Amino acid sequence: MEKKETDYARYELPGHRIKILGLTIFALLAFLIVSLSRLEKNILILDMLLIPIIVVLGLWLKRFLNRYSKIGFLINELGMFNLDESLIFKMDEIERIDVSPYTFKSANGFIILLKTKSSFKFIPGLYWRLGNRISIGGLVSKNESKFLSTTLLELYEQNLTKN
Asked: How many independent structural domains does the chain possess?
């Protein structure tokens, strides 16, 4: 998809949210490693591996933050795309959009049910796709989720009236 004036909406997840998520994961893993190494008073082989493990975790954190610091959606009448313009789904693949608070979905999010099944995909804090379900949410705030769901519902209804 080329960038055109047909882009209806653009949403980019604020970078600080994914950084907080990454740092929290890193801190919990580092705490777990240090706690496990402190169980024995004697220095063990596990203690010698502590520093390289923390270095590897630090490199993983850097890669995680670089990869997921600029994620979001482009929504238009053709479908929903990642910011790198890779297709998530086409508008005509939507069977239903469920914004009910009682469905199994990500926090502050909504579910999109598709007509066809697709492979598993997970973008931390933004969405997950499993089978014919796509759950938008996680690190998306309630207002942002409402904006995205309303935009998708409008485009979905326009697509239904065209067909």
From this structure: 1
